[in-house]
Amino acid sequence: MEKIIEGERGVEEAMEVDDSTVMKGVRHLCENVGITRVPSKYIFPVSDRPQIMSSAQKPKIKLPVIDIGELLSEDRTRVLETLDQACKEYGFFQVVNHGIDGVVIQRMIDSGKQFFELPFEERSRYLTTDTSSPVRYGTSFSEINDEVFCWRDFLKLTCHSLDTILPLWPSAPIGFRDDAILYSKKTRTLFLVLIAAVLEALGVGAGNCESSMKEFEEGSHLLVLNCYPACPEPELTLGMPSHSDYGFLTLVLQDEVEGLQVLHAGDWITADPVPGSFVVNVGDHLEIYSNGRYQSVLHRVVANASESRMSVASLHSVAFDSMVSPAAGLVDDGDAGKRRLYKDTGFADFIAYLSTSVPKSKSFLESRRLTM
Ligand SMILES: O=C(O)CCC(=O)C(=O)O
Ligand SMILES: [Fe+2]
Predict the structure, then answer these.
(1) What is the ipTM of this complex?
(2) What is the pTM for the complete model shown?
(3) Distance from the alpha carbon of residue 58 to the mean position of ligand 2, in angstroms
(4) Whether the predicted pLDDT of 12 surpasses 60
(5) Does the N-terminal or the C-terminal CB of the chain have fewer CB atoms within 10 Å?
(6) Which domain holds residue 123?
(7) Which H, E and C letters describe 319-346, residue by residue?
(8) Eight-class DSSP state of 74
(9) Residue 20 domain-assigned (yes or no)
(10) In the prediction, which pLDDT does 76 show?
(11) Would 314 be classed as within a structural domain?
């Protein structure tokens, strides 16, 4: 059926697809329905659509780079300063020289791609809208709440604790489970190195640092494999809408196709795919923990006209049943410069909010701010 959409991209014809087809995901749509235009369900309001720019038009700013080799060396002052600045000014940075073998990274990307290439019947064994499911295949950002769907399918794998959860992970394609296990272990270790450095850069003090690190060691870890099929009209939709991540840090592995954009000083900056590197970003929990010194930053993913894109996001935080609060060493109500800015917030409250709303902005975090 054809539908006329007026006043958005002029008067044009957009294809309609029924909701049950949409819920099967974008890959299913591209493979089984066969589309040459973006169906109306995926067309974003004009104000949210990306401006597709040539490389000459794109802002030239690059994300700061953190070299893990420097972090592990004796003279760490400079790299800790760079990290502090990166978290304050961008909320994002690229991580290089991290010691995770290129083979582990490539296998994760290859296995992830092969998972999304499985027949729909195989993938759909994990299809569920139950956000508490430890393994979840799905589409868009939040299928239950999204009015407009985004051009993305995903597989979410809870990683902690691995022993109890592993039997639930997909066993196909061959090698997938082993590749994802190794990748999740390596990214967890890298997260612990990074968050220890972040606590040091924040100056939370040795005692607080030790107790927080214990919480992270037993903390939550979610692996999100994102698949963004090539899109016939990338100017009308988004791979992922503007959002912030909930945790402390997210480690994003991108393949060679660009798409991730970060909002910085009013401009959308493209996070260049640097082979073998990770893009790391500050999440909402770190914003609360740092009492606003570091802020989570809105980011989005632009779809690509000719190539399918894949990314693997590794989201880390404290345990799901924990509270997130400003670090004791960073707040002092007797000191105007260290006034507490956020209420204590249960991780479960974040999850409950995320499953009932469309987090286009940082509205939940705003509601956790203390007013004077
Ligand atoms: O695909 C990407 O590069 C980013 C994905 C992302 O922002 C997320 O999974 O939260
Ligand atoms: Fe994200």
Answers:
(1) 0.99
(2) 0.95
(3) 21
(4) no
(5) C
(6) 62-367
(7) CCCCEECCCHHHCCCCCHHHCCCECCEE
(8) S
(9) no
(10) 93
(11) yes
